[in-house]
Amino acid sequence: MPHINEGNQTMSQYDVVVSAVEQARQRVVPYVRHTPLAPLPQAQTDLPSQLRLKLENLQVSGSFKARGAFNNLLLASPEQRDRGVVVASGGNHGLAIGYAARRLGVPATVYLPNSASEDRATRIARQGATVRRYGDNPSDTFRHSLEHAERDGLLYVHPFDAEGTIHGTGTLGLELLDDLPEIDCVLIAIGGGGLIGGMAATLKQLRPNVRIIGVEPVGAAKMLPSIQAGEVVELPGVRTIADTLAPRAVSERTLRLAERYVDEIVLVDDGQIVAAMRWLWIECNQLVEPAGAAVIAAALSGAVNVDSYAHPVALICGGNAAAEPIFAGYEQIVTTLADFSK
Amino acid sequence: MPHINEGNQTMSQYDVVVSAVEQARQRVVPYVRHTPLAPLPQAQTDLPSQLRLKLENLQVSGSFKARGAFNNLLLASPEQRDRGVVVASGGNHGLAIGYAARRLGVPATVYLPNSASEDRATRIARQGATVRRYGDNPSDTFRHSLEHAERDGLLYVHPFDAEGTIHGTGTLGLELLDDLPEIDCVLIAIGGGGLIGGMAATLKQLRPNVRIIGVEPVGAAKMLPSIQAGEVVELPGVRTIADTLAPRAVSERTLRLAERYVDEIVLVDDGQIVAAMRWLWIECNQLVEPAGAAVIAAALSGAVNVDSYAHPVALICGGNAAAEPIFAGYEQIVTTLADFSK
């Protein structure tokens, strides 16, 4: 069989059926928010005023991950839900599963790598999930959590490589088309590729002329080299402030979706990401996590020329910035004021 | 004339007529947001679940000050509006006047003390207002801005001591009664006293049994000593992280309103305020300025026993946290990651 046909075979195995995304939307709509598609404030001048922000940082659990989490749990049988769910996640997937599991009465265990911040662990535990730390790198955490699920016959939900997850992120494509039928460009951050895979497949099948632009942090760029190589490239290491965009590899599924449906991928560095977080705070009063600001970094830095589109959208994927760096500055001020008053 | 009558005389001069607050609401309603009265997330446990948060940090311009700003500008004659408005403000009043002036096409000049952060100045200038720095302490800034207004015959809007401002903050009382007619307690931060004055007067006249609890930072407590002294007490200095609660004195008007309508005043310190900011971020994904978290500090610290009310509300007065301390931590991380990669 020639290579090209193998590729098509693989693609058809992973392709996204729009009616399945529509069914996913019916499934999750009682539980997730139709998030705002906000115009920029009139007073700002750094970005063209036609750019709109899709604020998934205001989604339940603080990120788009809630869509896939609910879809996967609702697809499981009542018996599976009763037994419980296991996931591994340093961040938003764990929070989303914790949130969805609590809403649906499903026992949940979330594995975190030892390096995960105390803030993340606390937030997930607050949802009622059992939090376990295991492994010094995310691959060990992942393997261990999968063994746990298999041993105990529990539902396992992969953070990005599952059909239910892709259909969940596809619902964001449907929402954008409802709110802005004339959309002609969307900027989407890439971590494992589940967000861009589901959104791009849904949007491109319904509106072939929408330009899909992916954004990766330069210190954890894995989709771009994978597309260039024609196969999944695993990075030896990652280094970026956008921790929720930092798995070491995409999956076969998300790679094939990106090959087919993504028009362009651009890279941004950490300094640009933090500048974009600051911009979102000052201009829009939205504090987001670094991953959530990556698309704004791409626009502000000129990596993407947003001006050339009439109805562009930047997908702000999440808002769960860790508390530690945010409050370090404030706690320093309290200490200084207290010292000064002695 | 006996002292008690003098007091009554003064009071009647300053009293708030509810129908005037209702008129103010009609005036400002096309321009300000009916902000959410949000229940606490189900997962949190530190505060009783019946506590609701009135999120004025989501108000246009990022704080409740927009209500008074619009009311004052809309009360002015078209000729006054054409000539322009002058204010002095280190923070939210300046932002609110800047925002309202832009919406209404009024030329605005905002004076800031030399010590105001670059972030505040930038935000106000972005609204299109002329920003001028003058004076090393806010009293000098205030005096100078007033001279400017008088010299040029411009409208001057005091940050808290104006009838139009008090009627503007009173609209928050009407909104709370619309959304929660059974309200039995409200926690309100005190800066100059304009917020609590307008809200307390409106609420108490319509619902005498609502308990009004004021919250002051211990390093800038001026309403409590003024009530104890029976006259306006000017502090020799202030020291608090809640910079928008830090004028050195309340006014005769706000003191008389507080004497009449406020049931209790509690104090919180800076450490409690920052802990409350962190709590609001972790539990509610709301980043607010220190002043906005003061009421939560009062509840978390036990200074107010929120549990003893059936329908209590915490008024989150503003969200305009300065960007500098928030992003210092993130910029440190970027530097560390960059050093590590050399």
Structure, described:
The structure is a homodimer of 342-residue chains. Chain A is an alpha/beta fold. Chain A folds into two domains: 18-63 and 163-316, 3-Layer(aba) Sandwich (Rossmann fold); 65-156, Rossmann fold, CATH 3.40.50.1100. Helix content of chain A is 49%, strand content 13%. The first copy, chain A, has helices at residues 3-14, 18-28, 65-75, 78-83, 92-104, 118-126, 138-152, 163-179, 194-206, 223-229, 252-261, 270-284, 290-300, 323-340, and strands at residues 37-39, 52-55, 85-88, 108-112, 130-133, 155-156, 185-189, 211-217, 264-268, 312-316. Chain A has a six-stranded mixed sheet with strand order 1-2-10-7-8-9, with helices on both faces. In chain A, helix 3 (65-75) crosses helix 5 (92-104) and helix 3 packs across helix 8 (163-179). The interface between A and B is large, with 48 and 47 residues.
Biggest sheet features of chain A = 6 strands, mixed
Q: What fold name goes in the CATH topology slot of the largest domain in chain A?
A: Rossmann fold
Assign a percent range to the helix content of chain A: 40-55%
Shape of chain A: globular
CATH class of the largest domain in chain A: Alpha Beta
Order of helices and strands of chain A: HHEEHHEHEHEHEHEHEHHEHHEH
Oligomer: homodimer
Uncertain segments of chain A: 1-8
The largest inter-chain interface, given as chain pair and residues per side, is: A-B, 48 and 47 residues
Question: Structural class per helix/strand content of chain A?
Answer: alpha/beta
State the helix count of chain A.
14
How many domains, in number, for the residues of chain A?
A: 2
Q: Which architecture of the largest domain in chain A would the CATH scheme give at its second level?
A: 3-Layer(aba) Sandwich
Distance between the termini of chain A: 80 Å
Overall strand count of chain A: 10
